[in-house]
Amino acid sequence: MESSPKTESEHILIVDDEAVIREVLTDFLEENGDFCYVASNADEALGSLTENPITLVISDIKMLGMDGIELMKVAKQSFPDLDFMIMTGYAADYTYTNIINAGAADFMIKPFKLEELKAKMARIRRERRLLIDLKEGNAALELAMEKANLMSIKAETANLELDQIFDRSTSGIWVIDSQFEILRMNRTLSDLSGKGKGKVRGLKCYDVFPISLCGSRDCPLTRIMNGDGFFECDMEKRDPEGPRISFLLTATSFFGLDGELMGIVSEFKDITSRRQAEVALEKANRELRRLSVLDDLTQVANRRRFDETLNEEWQRLCRNRAPLSLIFCDIDYFKLYNDTYGHQAGDDCLRAVADTISVNCQRPGDFVARYGGEEFIVILPNTEAEGAVHLAEDIREEIERLKIPHMRSQVSRYITLSLGVSSVFPSADIIPESLVGVADKALYEAKNQGRNRTVLKVADNEGMP
Predict the structure, then answer these.
(1) With contact defined as beta carbons under 8 Å apart, do 153 and 147 qualify?
(2) Burial class, 447, CB count within 10 angstroms (exposed 0-12 / middle 13-18 / buried 19+)
């Protein structure tokens, strides 16, 4: 089977007996422009190989019937150039060496990151392109073999292959001797340094492509000449036009024919896209974490975050033997408000109430959440009942001062709140939800007493579950 390594898109066969794995990989790969085929076992996979122009197989090892290794061996009998990437969730049963020796191009252990898969596919694609290039180069060299003796052709072949590998690398590479002089530099690094096709042999490396490590104890050449066998670090370099380019710099020692340490071979791999992706991903994750704990409408904490915070504060105050109070707030006759003024006005009202409660709860540790519907709840660590009632009354009065019209309220011409307050010294013998229950009962009494008021019920540790 002939591959198409010069195209950007792969034709990929995904073989896994788990449908969710096939779906996740298919979505990810097709978003990157690849064409995907799926199979749940080896028999389906072999049938798909005969019907489709597949260039890469991503296969699980353990499947019903023929396993992934057997599938690879059978498939390569008919399609010797077909690349295989093997994956498994049973890392203890297989080693990287065993899988590669069996004929795989690469090996991944589940669970793996999709970016890892993308990087491994890029490496397989590069190696495939290089193999084709080398085959083309070798074909040209066969003509030269007719014109020279065997020894000279072997030398020419080795040199040509080295030139192709060296110059075709997408990473910048150079060879530096112990005196900081450039012995060789590939095309990629020449372009990055702005030298183009100019001659650089014999020039000092720090004059041609200076980096922040030049002249320091962490200079790669200095480190390796002083005994380090390998050096790696991330670095940045500003492009002449302004943007910064991120590199992964690696350096290894190279030796002469007599085994003498001669200098270093350094590689500058452009990881700017990866860095940008990492920054974007971290930003997205931060936003996702923020949104996961906020109420979409009011932008105060949601019920889930309230439950988490209550438990955290409960455990902390148990250790500190300090009080904890709750304020349970309910907008009076809110359903009638929605029916009268519409849901858009209702949403505006909820936002205004949430903002007012938040403004009044500014001490470190004060926590405001939307409990559900028109209900809000406030956690007050290190606060006894008297302080909680005082704050609840401040909130109630501030809501009245908003003067949000409510013509169908039975207690006022404006929006009002009923509030229930509970307070307790947290203990390991009772559960946090008990305090919520007491606050809810206090709120119920506030409504029964005519609404637009605050009622306190101090929790009884002995009576709470």
Answers:
(1) no
(2) middle
- What is the domain partition of the chain in residue ranges? 11-133, 169-275, 293-458
SS3 content of the chain, % helix, strand, coil (to 5): 45, 25, 30
Residue 306 DSSP symbol? H
Residues 280, 281, 282, 285, CA torsion sign: positive
Task: Tell me which amino acid residue 183 is.
Answer: L
Residue 325, judged by CB atoms within 10 A of its CB (0-12, 13-18, 19+), counts as buried
- Residue range 348-388, pLDDT digits in tens: 999 999 999 999 999 999 999 999 999 999 999 999 999 99
* DSSP codes joined into one string, 208-247: HS--TTTTSTT-HHHHHHTT-SEEEEEEEEE-TTS-EEEE
E strand map for 112-229: 172-177, 182-185
Q: What is the mean predicted confidence (pLDDT) over 135-159?
A: 62
Q: Which two tokens stand for residue 346?
A: 């209702």
Distance CA 105, CA 57 (A): 10
Q: Please tell us whether the domain made up of 293-458 is placed in CATH 3.30.70.270.
A: yes
Placement of tokens 């990929």 in the chain: 12
What whole-number distance in Å separates Cα of residue 106 and Cα of residue 117? 10
Give the three-class secondary structure for 399: helix
CATH number assigned to the domain covering 169-275 = 3.30.450.20
Instruction: Specify whether the backbone of 333 is left (phi greater than 0), alpha (psi in -120 to 50) or beta.
Output: left
327 Rama sector, left if φ>0, alpha if ψ -120 to 50, beta otherwise: beta
User: In this structure, what token pair is assigned to residue 37?
Assistant: 């085929």
Cis peptide, bond prior to residue 111, ω within 30 of zero: yes
Average pLDDT over residues 14-43: 91
259 or 36, higher pLDDT: 36
What does the pLDDT read at residue 1?
45
pLDDT digits (tens, 9 = 90+) for 164-213: 666 677 777 878 888 888 888 888 777 777 776 668 888 888 888 888 78
Looking at residue 141, the DSSP 8-state letter turns out to be H
- The CATH number of the structural domain formed by 11-133 is 3.40.50.2300
Q: Which entry of 241, 374, 386, 433 is annotated as an active-site residue?
A: 374
Strand 417-424 to strand 324-331: parallel, antiparallel, or no bridges (unpaired)?
antiparallel
Tokens of 114: 């999709």
- Region 20-25: what's the mean pLDDT? 90
pLDDT attached to residue 306: 95
Task: Pull the structure tokens for residue 277.
Answer: 């992706």
In the sheet that holds 375-381, the strands lie side by side as 367-372, 375-381, 324-331, 417-424, 454-458
Summarised one tens digit per residue, pLDDT across range 45-72 is: 999 999 999 999 998 988 888 888 899 9
Whether 115 is catalytic: no
Measured distance CA(329)–CA(331) in Å, rounded: 7
